[in-house]
Design goal:
single chain, 335 residues, alpha+beta, Fructose-1,6-Bisphosphatase, Chain A, domain 1, D-Maltodextrin-Binding Protein, domain 2, 2 domains, 5-stranded mixed β-sheet, binds 2,5-anhydro-1,6-di-O-phosphono-D-mannitol, binds magnesium ion
Length: 335
Amino acid sequence: MAQQILTLEQFISLNQPTFPGGVGALTGLLSQIGLIGKFLAHDLRRAGLLDILGTTGETNVQGEAVKKLDEIANETFVRVLQQSGLICALASEEMEKPIILSRDGAQGSYMVLFDPLDGSSNTDVNMPLGSIFSIVRNQRPDQPLSERDLVRKGTEQVVAGYLLFGASTMLVYTVGQGVHGFTLEPGIGEYLLSHKAITMPARGKVYAANEGNYQKWPGGTQKYFDYLKVKDKATGRPYSGRYSGCLVADVHRMLLGGGIYLYPGELDKPEGKLRLLYEANPLAWVVEQAGGRASTGTLRILDVEAKQLHQRVPLIIGSADDVLEAESFIQGRRM
Ligand code: AHM
Ligand code: MG
């Protein structure tokens, strides 16, 4: 029998009985994210033509300045979310300061933090890209909003997920009741449920990391990578290396098939590269909801104290047993 066809909106109304603020608000928020995904998928499909239509940073045939795709992506997020009526503040990797839409919270009680175009160096080579989003609620609706209100712990997220622009466009999200994936059917412009209640294997056979940084890593991290390459039947080693340069795409691979992604701390840069609030936290929640684990190497990502909007954090994320094993090397409990 053919599988039931469910759109994003239908799925939410049938399957998400509880959401702080009501199912209508959740439908509204995810519809806005879905709309952003449709706009971006449309733009990214034509990304390879930018050189013909006008090089980035120069003027195109119409004499208009051509914007970089990460700027276009950021503007798309801001424009769509601004008019939704559900959101009082926005923060992005591309903006130093947040946008406070309504100081008194009258415009809605949600705040969205996002990375509008993750893996942006993939743009020029027609490789996968993503967008990551984290939504929290305004806890002090009676007080004027400030940047500080957006800087919150991962456990306080109410919706988190990502858009993946690969061969297909996908929207994957969690509200703390499992992880669900939807694939955009471009012919009808709808996201259809394609991956219900995703669960990841406890152990994978794949690792993703920029191993060019090997010499910059502390000894424990190096030892873990050495270990992954040693032949051992019981643990399925050696693992295969798969690194796309797009965190969303790599984490998506692990979510579906298991494995581990690492952007660890470095000797001269212990905080790593990735951002806590709009990269690590949302992906950590998604992965935990699918049965996986996300850690700095010493601490659960969702428990990291948020101090700054653009704070960086080491990220070790993926199948639970793989992340546990990486932690034991990083912490020096295994050599
Ligand atoms: P970005 O949001 O500026 O694109 O940076 C994040 C990206 C991740 O998608 C990816 O895993 C990593 O940075 C790649 O970094 P590197 O080129 O150092 O391997
Ligand atoms: Mg990014």
